[in-house]
Design a protein that fits this description.
A two-stranded antiparallel ribbon has the order 1-3. The relative contact order is 0.14. By secondary structure, it is mainly α. It has a domain of about 350 residues: Serine Threonine Protein Phosphatase 5, Tetratricopeptide repeat, CATH 1.25.40. It contains 20 helices and 6 strands. The chain is globular.
Length: about 500
């Protein structure tokens, strides 16, 4: 199934890049003999998009409790019950597409761009390489890093997770050190060459902002250590004010959003993904109009009703009651969203006890998270929600309350957009908090995450990572030992 999606995404690249160059890539997708950075970068962008917009968006959205597996089907019961052993393909597809596809393409792009002094392409490839390692490191922990792209005959060592984190920041610093050269080189590119970049249309100033904002995001994982560097980036005031996203999907087979393609177009039923009552109950309690953006009315009455997490065994009486998740063929796949960039800055200011600036960026983030969606062809307006007395008014009474305001809205803003990242943020921040009972049980606190009714993990545990794929650990003597799904990483609070 995922090969079909990947082929479809590659066909999008064919539309926007040279067919001759891309066919050279397809002859040997792991280590192309004759390909330049101009063709390799869009190939890598497509592979990254396929991963974070497909499997990781699905897993992250279920584990962030945006979606739950339907009672009338069973495609995702393993994800909803946290039952993903090393042999499961959800572990291996992410690993294989990024290690065998995106990273070699980016490494070759960097080499070609460096040898030919194509510094704008070099900057793009370095930034994407850092982003790819960020995703792998965030989901798996210890990973091949220093020896990751030395060739298929090498059994790479697994570098410790914090070393990979620090190494990823170093990659961004290396890129930013050549920002001036990248800007100069960018001025010589033709309009067609700029269009080969499928994320930011070749605008190197936007790529520089992307690298800086990604660095700021990573630095927040260790705020106390990185205070000076965080302050410097904020003072520089050169961060993203736009999305970094793949927006070129079409409502055609193999050309649509990866999750839509796999869940709605390719499966034998389009009814697997239902609204999780964790998110649905919170939206209903706040009278948030995004309930109708994220979910459909149910088949029975048109009402918005969620399913308890892991509640796929609750029985047929639930089948007509629950709301299906809304997905669209042309939904964007976000590496970073504009709202996220404002939330990141809001958090930095909150941690620095600068409540006015924290509120400023919080308000910008929430308003942006609303207006990205339309109702009756008009952007949603969140002004009344963040106004004085509004249900999402910024709470500046303490640092913790400021942070909880920011994290709560970031969680909501990730539905149908950045489920892959919301899961990581929940573990980083410890918010929303893990509850102890299902949403349909006495004592449940609206807004807390609920344990999956069918969880295979020990009581009180939730997923915090993907486990290493069997294909890697069985054949690489240098692989780290498999770490259980519920094991925390060094930057996890919850």
């Amino acid at each position: 199934m995922k090969k079909i999606i990947f082929t479809g995404l590659l066909s999008i690249v064919l539309i926007f890049t040279s067919c001759e160059n891309l066919l050279d890539i397809n002859d040997n997708p792991n280590y192309p003999k004759e390909a330049d950075a101009e063709a390799l970068i869009p190939s890598a962008e497509v592979q990254i998009t396929g991963v974070i917009g497909g499997d990781l968006q699905l897993i992250g959205s279920i584990w962030s409790q945006f979606y739950a597996q339907h009672t009338g089907s069973n495609q995702y019961t393993n994800i909803d019950s946290y039952n993903l052993p090393t042999s499961n393909t959800y572990n291996s597809r992410t690993w294989n597409l990024l290690y065998s596809g995106a990273l070699p393409d980016l490494d070759n792009a960097i080499k070609d761009a460096e040898s030919n002094k194509k510094w704008s392409y070099w900057f793009m490839a370095k930034t994407l390489k850092a982003f790819t390692f960020h995703v792998l490191n965030s989901y798996y922990g210890d990973i091949p890093f220093s020896q990751a792209t030395q060739g298929i005959t090498v059994n790479p060592k697994y570098d410790p997770e914090k070393e990979v984190y620090l190494g990823t920041i170093k990659i961004l610093d290396e890129a930013l050190a050549k920002a001036g050269d990248a800007k100069t080189a960018n001025e010589t590119l033709t309009e067609n060459q700029l269009k080969n970049d499928l994320l930011l249309d070749g605008k190197i100033t936007s790529w520089i902002k992307f690298a800086k904002t990604l660095k700021l995001k990573l630095l927040l994982r260790d705020y106390n250590t990185n205070k000076a560097a965080i302050t410097a980036l904020l003072n520089e005031n050169d961060l993203l004010t736009m999305d970094v996203a793949f927006k070129k999907f079409e409502d055609k087979e193999n050309l649509s959003n990866p999750l839509f393609e796999s869940d709605r177009r390719k499966l034998n039923t389009p009814n697997n993904l239902r609204a999780s009552s964790t998110m649905m109950n919170y939206l209903l309690a706040k009278k948030d109009p995004r309930d109708s953006i994220f979910y459909e009315g149910n088949a029975a009455t048109g009402a918005y009703v969620g399913l308890p997490q892991g509640g796929y065994t609750l029985g047929s009486s639930w089948t007509p009651k629950t709301s299906r998740a809304k997905l669209a063929a042309i939904d964007y796949t976000y590496l970073m969203s504009e709202a996220e960039c404002y939330f990141i800055q809001a958090e930095c200011y909150a941690r620095a006890n600068n409540a006015p600036k924290a509120k400023e960026y919080y308000d910008k983030a929430v308003l942006n998270a609303f207006k990205k969606w339309k109702s009756n062809d008009l952007p949603l307006d969140g002004s009344s929600f963040i106004a004085a007395g509004g249900v999402y008014e910024f709470d500046a009474t303490s640092e913790q309350k400021m942070l909880e305001s920011i994290w709560r809205q970031k969680w909501i803003a990730s539905v149908r957009a950045q489920g892959w990242d919301a899961f990581l943020e929940i573990n980083r921040t410890g918010f929303p908090e893990y509850g102890t009972v299902a949403t349909n049980a006495a004592g449940y606190v609206v807004g807390n995450l609920a344990p999956s009714i069918n969880s295979v993990l020990p009581a009180g545990e939730f997923p915090r990572r993907l486990v290493y794929p069997k294909s890697s650990t069985d054949f690489n003597p240098n692989a780290s030992a498999v770490v259980p799904l519920q094991t925390k990483m060094w930057w996890h609070k919850q």
